[in-house]
Design brief:
This protein is mainly α. It has a domain of about 180 residues. About 55% of the residues lie in helices and about 0% in strands. It is built from eight helices and two strands; from the N terminus they run αααααβααβα. It has a two-stranded antiparallel ribbon. It starts with about 55 loop residues before the first helix and ends with a helix.
Length: about 260
């Protein structure tokens, strides 16, 4: 009986420069999921497309409509002046950026700030007149009318501060689109835990509207934290105005019902 000859099996050659086929130091085996070495940069940290114009435009029109419903004694005279100016400004801003806010212009930014300032002045005047009337006993003879008026002023206040937060955070919507500022003024939960949000997430006007609403109802920050001093001061002013309006209006309405 002759000697048994062992036929060697074909084995992959080992190249020290590339590593073996099963060397974990040189990449995963075939069939295993591949995870990128670096996670994608979140959208709020890189240049993206501009956000939609219509959410903020609808909010402004709602605020103007609420101003029209207020009694004449609580508005700045002539009562049509500021609402007409606000409608003209928002029409000009829509014409400049009809679908998305992408055109960088100092003139358009100033026009947007003037628009918010007009709404703020009109609503602030109405709130002061209402509070003074309640303290002097000149307002609040009908509980239903008082609640409707106070609710309109409170809701306009929510929209106004949402617009301020949206327009000032990291330089405004155009600056956020271009990612020209690294540090945020408001810290949203998606920024703290990016793994819980899609890579394309970035704050838009509805997020700032939610921030304003929760601050007006809780009288303090909830899940969105202000980081900049101006953001903290602005949220403090909103909480104070909201608290004063709600307390006086509700207390007077309860007194009338009793």
């Amino acid at each position: 009986m002759g000697p048994v000859t062992h036929v060697p099996h074909d084995e992959p050659e080992h190249d020290p420069a590339h590593g073996s086929a099963h060397d974990p130091a040189h990449g995963p085996e075939q069939g295993t999921p591949h995870h990128p070495a670096h996670p994608p940069v979140p959208a709020w940290q890189r240049a993206t497309r501009g956000e939609s114009r219509w959410a903020s435009a609808v909010a402004v029109l709602v605020a103007v409509a609420l101003q029209w419903t207020l009694p004449e004694r609580l508005t700045i005279h002539p009562g049509w002046l500021l609402p007409a100016l606000e409608v003209a400004l928002v029409a000009a801003l829509i014409a400049a950026n009809p679908l998305r806010i992408e055109r960088a212009s100092r003139l358009y930014r100033v026009a947007g700030l003037v628009l918010i300032a007009c709404i703020s002045a009109a609503n602030g005047w109405s709130a002061v007149r209402l509070v003074v009337g309640l303290v002097r006993g000149q307002e609040g003879h009908d509980a239903t009318a008082l609640l409707v008026t106070g609710g309109g002023i409170w809701l306009t206040n929510v929209i106004v501060f949402a617009l301020w937060y949206w327009e000032w955070d990291r330089g405004g919507p155009v600056a956020r689109m271009q990612a020209t500022r690294i540090y945020p003024d408001f810290l949203f939960p998606q920024m703290q835990s990016p793994e819980l949000a899609p890579p394309h997430w970035e704050p838009a006007f509805p997020d700032y509207l939610y921030l304003s609403f929760t601050n007006a109802t809780a009288f303090s920050p909830t899940d969105v934290m202000p980081l900049n001093r101006w953001a903290k001061m602005l949220m403090m002013v909103q909480s104070a105005v909201s608290l004063l309006t709600v307390v006086l209006v509700v207390a007077r309405a309860v007194n009338i019902l009793n």
